[in-house]
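PROTEIN DESIGN WORKSHEET
SECTION A - STRUCTURE
LENGTH: 442
TOKENS:
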């Protein structure tokens, strides 16, 4: 893993939605300023304490970006290749890394490769597409408009290597591998060494939904995978007031961190907004606390820091609500008080994260647990550093005593450490967190 990723904190954007582009395929014209609309938002990224921009699909596609037509050109709804290069340069000037979204498991049915394969069964393109037992094209997860690539084909391997290196040459810092779970790991094990010959500092994170994450990382050669298990545990345990579920996932997460740094999140372009997952709004800040203080490589989905709400629906267009258009600049935001509070919370917590970079691979230990309360420590793997995080979902106060603070930063007594974030009162040799509150001590 490149060393710079230890300090990387991402803002994740779905570009087609962000600029208000039509994703039905009916309107292929440029939407407003296209990718250049993101440039004014780079200052918003840094104001949050973040330093990375993780882009969803930007390459030419038929509709939603994941039905690619050309990996070598920017989607006309987002502008052109120069617009992407301009954004990459603008990000670099501000010290912001950029991650691109690589859709390499499948292509859109209208891709020239598919047309050529259907017209000429003896063509090179015909050998690049996966076939079923009857010789038909294999759709991806039942979607007829998505055609699965044949990852045993050397031509597919060459294509992916060429695409990845071309855009890394242009200034990108890494890739998210879409639907990587559906691709044989030996394909990535062949592709990535070739990419890293030219770009040893490139970061690669794979979309993986479940399974043995550490084994996937080892077999494929990627740097990280998406931590959906922790995502689910965060919103579910907070919403249901069952912190035993979260505790179980934290034990699993700690094991993952021993092998690699997971990509952590509480929202993305494919799931219901975290603010819409929580019936009790008092517990929404707890999700941000977890994201900011747990080991891994955290990503904030654009709009979660503004407490946007939306529910993903299982239908055509069911993702649209969680992929909304944004105003031309952050100055155009018209925020309600609750949204300003959420924005300030993100700034506070990710500022804290920036000041404690060892959290990236810290060691997590739970020190107190009930259904509705959790206290855990994160300690530096090397050197000094320790934070104590207390979460209270109960109607009663949470008392963090020496016996529940473990090896706290000042030798075991909560009264000898300070309050870094949140709310808590010091009472004698303990800190007291208010009902439905949280605190970070250090």
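SECTION B - SEQUENCE
RESIDUE ASSIGNMENT:
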């Amino acid at each position: 893993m490149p060393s710079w990723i230890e300090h990387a904190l991402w803002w994740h954007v779905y570009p087609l939605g962000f600029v208000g582009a039509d994703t039905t395929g009916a309107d292929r014209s440029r939407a407003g300023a296209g990718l250049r609309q993101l440039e004014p938002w780079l200052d918003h990224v840094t104001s949050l304490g973040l330093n990375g921009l993780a882009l969803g699909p930007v390459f030419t596609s038929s509709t939603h970006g994941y039905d690619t037509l050309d990996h070598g050109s920017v989607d006309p709804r987002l502008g052109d290749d120069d617009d992407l290069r301009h954004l990459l340069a603008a990000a670099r000037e501000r010290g912001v890394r950029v991650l691109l979204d690589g859709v390499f498991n499948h292509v859109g049915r209208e891709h020239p490769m598919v047309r050529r394969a259907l017209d000429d069964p003896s063509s090179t393109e015909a050998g690049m597409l996966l076939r079923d037992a009857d010789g038909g094209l294999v759709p991806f997860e039942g979607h007829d408009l998505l055609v699965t690539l044949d990852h045993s084909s050397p031509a597919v391997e060459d294509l992916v290597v060429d695409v990845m290196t071309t855009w890394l040459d242009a200034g990108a810092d890494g890739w998210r591998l879409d639907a990587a779970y559906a691709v044989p790991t030996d394909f990535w094990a062949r592709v990535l060494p070739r990419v890293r010959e030219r770009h040893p500092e490139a970061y690669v994170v794979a979309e993986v939904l479940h399974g043995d994450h550490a084994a996937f990382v080892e077999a494929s050669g990627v740097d990280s995978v998406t931590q959906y298990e922790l995502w689910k545990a965060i919103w579910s345990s907070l919403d249901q007031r069952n912190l035993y579920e979260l505790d179980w996932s934290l034990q699993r997460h700690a094991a993952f961190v021993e092998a690699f740094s997971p990509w952590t999140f509480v929202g993305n372009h494919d799931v219901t907004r975290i603010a819409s997952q929580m019936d009790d709004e008092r517990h929404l800040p707890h999700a941000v606390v977890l994201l900011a203080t747990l080991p891994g490589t955290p990503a904030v989905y654009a709009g979660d820091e503004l407490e946007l709400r939306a529910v993903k629906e299982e239908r055509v267009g069911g993702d649209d609500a969680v992929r909304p258009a944004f105003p031309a600049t952050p100055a155009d935001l018209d925020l309600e008080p609750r949204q300003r509070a959420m924005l300030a919370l993100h700034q506070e917590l990710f500022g804290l994260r920036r000041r404690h970079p060892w959290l990236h691979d810290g060691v997590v230990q739970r020190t107190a647990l009930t259904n509705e309360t959790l206290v855990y420590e994160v300690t530096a793997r090397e050197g000094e550093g320790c934070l104590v995080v207390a979460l209270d979902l109960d109607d009663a106060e949470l008392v963090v005593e020496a016996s529940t603070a473990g090896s706290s930063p000042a030798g075991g007594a909560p009264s000898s450490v300070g309050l870094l974030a949140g709310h808590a009162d010091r009472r004698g040799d303990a800190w007291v967190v208010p009902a439905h509150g949280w605190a970070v001590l250090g």
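SECTION C - NOTES
The radius of gyration is 23 Å.
The chain has twelve helices and 21 strands.
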